[in-house]
Amino acid sequence: MDLRIGTSGWSYPKGRGTWNGVFYPSPRPRGFDELAFYAERFNTVEVNSTFYGMPKPETARRWIERTPATFEFSVKLFQKFTHPTMFRDAVRAQTPEAGAAWLDDLAAITQGDVDLFKAGIDPLWSGGRAGALLAQFPPSFTATPGALEYLAWLLQTFEGYGVAVELRHKSWSDRFDETAALLGAHGAAWVQIDEPKFRFSIRQDQLPGVGPFCYTRLHGRNAAQWWRHDAAEDRYNYCYSEEELRPFADTARMARALGKKVYLYMNNHFAAQAVVNAGMVRTLAGGLAP
């Protein structure tokens, strides 16, 4: 069970890229459970909902009840910790009358935020059902002294949770030794990502990566719709070929040979293409279906 391959999220009920009628049946049998159905076919999932709202322990307990004892959940850190602008925009959309000073105060991270998030995911960690804690940063998060200081604080705050850090701006790979040393000091993994590459994009080598475990995310290569699209889901409308997936399978095998646990998640979720590619890369890496 040192090879964990799945998708980023399991519920995509709307839009042109819905999973209904593609991965999930349509119409659905009475009492159909998406997560239970998914967990019969994969041994892990990356939870996206915790990025958009603080997790609740009762929700995590229900996830545990609906999946096998060997199934693992990797959890994305709440956006307030990694995407402060997005957090402000979300609050402003709900309360358009809010003033800038009030928004700034609300966006300031407190110990209460940390405690609330940890309490929400505690059933997974205390119950032995946790994978990694993903801290996904946007391209605007660059390797400035302030960002390095904040990242050090975040890693210390969540040390022991198996943090995987996704960095997208090339300033981090330009300062490879410094970035790797910071992550390594806190036992964190440097997430290997695959996505369309632009002038400012991080540069990575698809090797097993920095840290005690290997964490890889594949977002697709739809460069034409990455920044310009009618709907956000269009960005992830991409299906990898076997040739494109083979290097990631090779990396997974290399990491396992080094004694590292592997987490690999497909985020090209449009029309369940992530499901198809997760199955393909699992086969290429030598993994068996659960």
Strand order of the largest sheet: 2-3-4-5-6
Low-pLDDT windows of residues = none
Mean pLDDT: 94
Count of strand segments: 9
Structural class: alpha/beta
Profile the largest sheet.
5 strands, parallel
Overall, the morphology is: globular
How do the helices and strands follow one another from N- to C-terminus? EHEHHEHHHHEHEHHEEEHEH
What do you see in this structure?
- The strands form two sheets. The chain has a five-stranded parallel β-sheet.
- The protein has 290 residues and is of the alpha/beta class.
- It is globular.
- The termini are close together.
- The relative contact order is 0.16.
- The protein is built from twelve helices and nine strands.
Annotate the secondary structure layout.
Layout: E1 3-7, H1 34-39, E2 44-47, H2 49-52, H3 57-65, E3 72-76, H4 79-82, H5 84-94, H6 100-107, H7 111-126, E4 130-136, H8 145-157, E5 163-166, H9 170-174, H10 176-185, E6 189-190, E7 192-194, E8 213-218, H11 242-257, E9 261-266, H12 273-285
Parallel strand pairs: 1-9, 2-3, 3-4, 4-5, 5-6, 7-8, 8-9
Which tags fit this structure?
290 residues, alpha/beta, five-stranded parallel β-sheet, four-stranded parallel β-sheet, 12 helices, 9 strands, 14% strand
Question: What's the short version?
Answer:
By secondary structure, this protein is α/β, with parallel strands linked by helices. Helices cover 40% and strands 14% of the residues.
